[in-house]
Structures are given as C-alpha cells and as structure tokens.
Amino acid sequence: MTAIAMAGWLAQAGLRNMSIEELVDGFGRRLGEAGLRVRRMFVGMNTLHPMVRARSLIWNSGEGVARHFEFGHADIDSAQIQQSPFAAMLRDGIAELRQNLEGNGPLPDIPVFDELRGVGMTEWMGWVQPFGELTPQVGRSTEGDHAERLWLAVSAATDRPGGFSDEDLVVLHEVLPVFAVSMKAVSMRGIGHGLLAAYLGSDPASRVLAGTVLRGEVQSVEAVVFFTDLRGFTALADTMPGRELIVLLDDYFSCMVQPVTAHGGEVLKFMGDGMLAAFAVVIGNRAEVCAAALAAAKEVLTRVEALNIERAKAGQPATTLDVSLHIGRVLYGNVGSDTRLDFTVIGPAVNEASRIEALCQPLGQALLISQAFAEAATESRDRLVSLGRHRLRGVREDTELFGLANQRP
Prior knowledge:
- By secondary structure, the chain is of the alpha+beta class.
- Helix content is 41%, strand content 30%.
- Helix 6 (166-200) crosses helix 7 and helix 9 runs antiparallel to helix 10 (286-313).
C-alpha cells in the first residue's frame, strides 16, 4: 500500500467517524502492508474532561488494540506518567524523538525502552502533535497565557535490524499528519460527549450532540424522582473555609451519584447542597424501576453513614442526608432563555418530591417515600412502613408517607 492510498483511507476513516480502536488497528495493519515492520504503537491524548486527564491505548501487530489506559488529573505526577518518554517531550516542546534499542548499550532511564528491547525491538520513535485547542486555566489573564493545548502522542516500535529505514521515515512523515487529523476528527466527538455528560448527564449529552433538543422542547415521561438535601448545610457553610466546604460537598455528592448511576438513574443537577435525579419508567417495569431507585437510596445512605464515621475519626465536620422518592409524570427536556438552556425535569411530581424531602427532619427519617411510589413498588412493598398521613406544603390533600422498615433516624 502506498502512502497516498493510506492517507486516503485515513481521511475517509475520519469522515466516517470510525471508532478510535478501528482507526488505530486499520492504520497499524496498513503500515505493515506498506512494508513497515511496526510491531507496537502507542496512541494517547489528553481530554477536556474534569475528571479524566488523558486516555491512551497500545496496539500490537499480532493482536490489534491490546490495552487501554485512563489517567485522572491526580495521576499526572505518578511514576507511570513522569517516566514516559512523552513527559519530557511535552515539557520541552519536542515534536519528534528517536531511540535506538539495538545492542546492549545503556538506555535512558525510561522503563518502556528496556521493555521494548527485551521483546526484540530495535528502534522506538515518538511524535507529539498539538491540536491547537486551548484549555483556559482559571485565574489566567488571557486564554492563551499558559493554557494547556490538546495534543496527540504517537509512538511506533520496530524489530527491523537497524531500526526504521530512510524509506520508512518518508512514509511515516507523510501519513502521520493525516493520522493525527483523523484521530482529531473521531476523538473530538467523544471528548465533547464526555464533557457534556460530566455536566448534563449521559442521556442529555447524547440528545444534545444528536441535535434532538430545542428550547422549550420537552416530553412527558413517567419517572421516579430522587431528591436529596444535606441537613444543616447552611450552618456548615457559615463556619467552614471555602475550599474545605467544596471538599465536603464533593465527598457527599460522590456518595449520592455513584449508587444512582449504578442502578440506572440519571443525575440531572446539583442544587447547592442537594441533588435531583430521575429513573425513567417504561411500560411494564414500574415495580422494577422503583426497586432500583430504592436500592440506590439505601446504598446512598449507607455510604453517607460510612463517610460520616471517617470524617468524625479525622476530626472533620459531618452532616446527614435526607432523601425522598416519588413517582409521577414529569416534563423532561430543555428550558431556559435564548442564550442559556438547562436540561432538567419539571412538574408537580418534582415539586412534591421536594416537599416530601422537607419533612425528613420533622419526622426523624433519613428516607421518605410517597404513597404513589409505595403503590408502584410492588416488589419492595414488604420493606416499607407507613408513617401516617401528612400535609405537603402547597398540596391540597394530605398524603400517606412511608419509610424503610427498621430505618434509623
């Protein structure tokens, strides 16, 4: 295969939005068809995700994409990152680097070079390709001042005696820029979805990227509304330093979010010290969805209890969490102005869930469940106990509320 043919295939792959795994595997195989004995490739790039710093993969000629890696922002100082040859390249602005691996001579103190020599590789080459987008950093005067660019890091290792030939280098220099453009084309959608999902949730992110939402475009759906609020947070906010307060919020939100998403719920928004989530109901699975939401609520409260024990041992302030569960029809979609939209659920069911949560403290309960939820939760009814009828603010009729059997205040 010629370099021109390979570049054409790469361009088409980018236009077709091929998956990254397919793109890397197809590129590696076509390098072999062009006569290059590339036995291993590394492909990595950073992201705009607030929790994920970079993602990478390794391709081997015998098995295709063999390993995936994901690094959080806290991992940037880890040995695995700092001992990578790309750490120095990125730090020093080096776009291309070659390393001879033949013989028994000393190698730079970079573990991957010893690893590649051990499996018979004769040369390693690495490239860093900036994508041009800038990631503004808080507190900088201008976007370009000390901003972090998106970049693609690629390496190729060969077992050809003498390393890469001059002809190999010509081909690589011709096709690598096209490979970088294709990688940018297929990865930016994933970066965009990950970024949107981090702030909106997975389903709203998919809808936004698909262009299926317009201002005021909502749909009526039945859902379990999952509403939480930290008890006594205002008093804590008045006494705790700002950074410590954010750490506290993050700790408690982690306790809330992970069980909800694990049980099929969608976190829609954080409201100061509270959270609004929803579990969509489809025909025939009301009891199943209610059971999932109830399991999530129990796990959330268990995690909060464990967190409070940890914080107490560390001499840190702690608080309790109130949770309410309700089921009803909600309006799900985009609301807002012509310049700022919010993807959320609205409707009487959401308001009632909020009113029910407000009764947790007066009734001495960490979890309150509506009558409508109790009636729908046929698989879980034996675990619920009636707490009597109560008046919800703004609701005309009294309603029966339920708690978990053996629930501790």
